[in-house]
Specification:
The complex is a heterodimer of chains A (310) and B (299).
Chain A: H1 2-28, H2 31-39, H3 45-54, H4 61-73, E1 79-80, E2 85-86, H5 87-122, H6 127-141, H7 144-158, H8 174-204, H9 207-214, H10 219-231, H11 233-241, H12 243-256, H13 262-271, H14 275-303, H15 305-308
Chain B: H1 7-29, H2 34-51, H3 53-56, E1 73-74, E2 80-81, H4 92-128, H5 130-145, H6 148-159, H7 163-189, H8 193-201, H9 205-213, H10 218-241, H11 253-260, H12 269-298
Antiparallel strand pairs in B: 1-2
Helix pairs in contact in B: 2-4, 2-12, 4-5, 4-7, 4-10, 4-12, 5-7, 6-7, 7-10, 8-9, 10-11, 10-12, 11-12
Classes of the chains: A mainly alpha (310), B mainly alpha (299).
Chain lengths: 310, 299
């Protein structure tokens, strides 16, 4: 157990270093473009040169890389041009807002998708199974940008039930969270439910389930005590692995509902060419993605007794 | 072509023919799966719409006629806006019809590029193994560590938004996924007798990879290609939606939604119809992939 945690930790650090090299190569290698982004299109050549000189951009590339990396590691992420505030502060604010969104998202997604998947898996081939599978294919086929539009057309424009934006201007509002969370859940629901279904079918075909049924254990007990434990290992890791993909959905949903979270921050940083902010956001996204992948790996080992006790 | 062929070559040709016949019967077997037929019908519908766009579209996709026209109303010249007009007075139906061209050009090209890269890398990794495999796996892991949309955004932020850059970004983001699938299948196939036979015959590694192994991996790859084409369609639409897609005058479904999003609460017809168009195309591809999965499994 400690060995796999250690291995994943080394992998995490190696990936971060490689990703930082790519980012540095893309955005910082040519000082000229950094100066343009920092001072704006209408700065003069002298201003740019002066700025580059002051910020140490005439050092060799590898010296700059290690200085940049050092600042990154110690949390000195620079100033955001657009927000006129330290990048670290903006980032933490936005990340916690997305954290709230994610909390409600998982609290909704997990019960619904697992229940649908388990029901479909037990009743394989029946009308219920087909209906659930069809529902899953349809919901995964609607891209998040389309589902946000369609949902708000129905619930905001036609029925006037919910607010159309989630800016949270007057403080936290649960009603404003409903639409973004629903859009995200619809996006991910089908995939997780189908994984659960496949995993359930696989487990139900194992000999130990047949044994339990034949020795007279009541069917609901077989499902709840014997089958679910093994059938839910795969879906849980899938949910974790899906975080990578989900970040895309978060960007779209936060933009559409004007939710002040991490997803909309990446986009604002990109569109306004706020370089330090964009670098920090991208690194954060990679950390989240790799960390959840590692967690999925560790959780899989921990949940599966055949691997745990090896 | 029938004269002067020695036995091994003839048997190789025979293999070729049965492969073609197998493909045709595979297409024929689509009829066994109603869901695949529905999917195929939806996809073919959009392909035909894209091909015959100039004949089908009632108006020019860029002509500004009557801003904010509601669905079913008429323009000053008596033109019928079946699905209404957008904020600049362009016919929504015509823009959707022409937008099908944009999607059905960029998504397949981008997916095909990802496949070329992914298949070559996957064959090399699986067949050569050793350091080639390790190196390619590391590169793939690194790319997959970036959330796909973040990778697109970073690339577009750096190199600007154009059709070519979108194709490059998709290739980079999807290539590793294809590589992993191909590699897994190669590891399975490379131990079969016919690969050993080809090695004994003294065939080159490239011949074995492309002529012996690859044709035996097509079934799952076709399924994956359908799914991936759906993802790429979503990705291109999302980039358009975020304002990072093709430059504005192009009718592009994601871009249409992005441009008229601010009017969605007053004139939903401007955004709802492009959304339905994208969703139906992806749904068709997913149905097709679903039906094909069953057929491949049964084969």
């Amino acid at each position: 157990m400690p060995r796999i945690v250690f291995r994943r930790l080394v992998y995490l650090i190696a990936t971060m270093l490689a990703a930082s090299l790519i980012l540095f190569g893309l955005f910082e290698l040519s000082p000229e473009s950094v100066a343009v982004d920092a001072l704006g299109q209408f700065s003069t050549q002298e201003q740019r040169m002066l700025w580059l000189e002051q910020n140490g951009y005439f050092e060799p590339a590898y010296v700059r890389y290690f200085a940049w990396l050092g600042k990154f590691v110690t949390g000195d992420l620079g100033m955001s041009r657009v927000f006129n505030a330290p990048v670290a502060k903006v980032l933490v604010d936005r990340l916690s807002a997305t954290g709230i969104l994610a909390l409600f998202f998982f609290a909704t997604l997990i019960p619904i998708s697992l229940t649908l998947g388990v029901i479909a898996g037990i009743q394989r081939g029946t009308l219920v199974d087909r209906a659930i599978t069809l529902f899953c294919v349809i919901t995964t086929s609607i891209p998040p940008f389309a589902s946000t539009v369609l949902l708000s057309t129905i619930f905001v424009f036609s029925l006037h039930l919910l607010p159309g934006t989630s800016g949270m201007i007057d403080g936290f509002s649960f009603r404003e969270l409903i639409m973004p969370v629903t859009a995200l859940v619809l996006y991910d629901l089908g995939y997780v439910a189908r994984m659960t279904r496949a995993s359930m079918i696989d487990v139900m075909a194992r000999p130990y389930i047949r044994t339990a049924v034949l020795k007279g254990v009541p069917y609901p007990v077989v499902i709840l005590r014997h089958a679910l434990r093994n059938a839910l290992i795969a879906p849980f890791t899938v949910i974790m692995l899906h975080v990578n993909w989900l970040i895309g959905g978060v960007i779209v949903v936060e933009l559409f509902f004007a939710y002040k979270g991490f997803g909309s921050l990446i986009l604002e940083a990109t569109l306004s060419r706020d370089l330090f902010l964009l670098e920090a956001c991208t690194m954060t996204a990679v950390v989240i993605a790799v960390a959840t992948q590692s967690l999925a790996d560790i959780a899989y080992t921990f949940l599966n007794p055949r691997i745990r006790f090896k | 072509m029938t004269t002067g062929i020695d036995a091994p070559e003839r048997s190789a040709l025979g293999g070729e023919e049965s492969r073609v016949a197998g493909f045709i019967s595979g297409v024929g077997r689509l009829r066994e799966s109603p869901i695949a037929m529905i999917g195929l019908a939806i996809v073919l519908f959009w392909v035909l719409v894209a091909i015959f766009a100039p004949l089908l579209a009632p108006m020019s996709p860029t002509a500004t006629i009557r801003p904010m026209a509601l669905p079913g109303t008429r323009g000053p010249g008596g033109q019928l806006f079946l699905l209404g007009a957008d904020h600049l007075g362009r016919d929504v139906l015509s823009r959707i019809i022409y937008g099908a061209r944009t999607v059905l050009i960029y998504a397949p090209i981008a997916t095909a590029c990802a496949y070329v890269v992914g298949v070559v890398a996957g064959l090399l990794a699986g067949y050569r193994q050793g350091w080639v495999d390790d190196l390619l796996a590391r590169i793939g892991d690194l790319i997959l560590a970036f959330p796909a949309l973040v990778l697109y955004i970073v690339i577009i932020a750096k190199f600007g938004s154009s059709g070519l850059n979108i194709i490059l970004a998709v290739t980079l983001a999807s290539g590793p996924g294809v590589m992993r699938i191909v590699r897994g299948m190669v590891l399975d196939i490379r131990n079969r007798a016919f690969v050993a036979a080809a090695q004994v015959r003294g065939e080159s590694a490239w011949h074995i990879m492309f002529a012996e192994i690859l044709p035996n991996a097509t079934g799952p790859l076709i399924v994956d290609a359908c799914l991936r084409l759906g993802y790429v369609t979503i990705a291109i639409g999302t980039l358009g939606f975020l304002g990072l897609g093709l430059p504005p005058p192009n009718p592009d479904w994601g871009g249409m939604i992005s441009e008229t999003r601010q009017f969605a609460m007053i004139f939903p017809h401007m955004v709802v119809f492009p959304c339905l168009a994208v969703s139906s195309l992806v749904l068709g591809l997913n149905f097709l992939a679903d039906g094909l999965t069953d057929i491949v499994k049964r084969a």
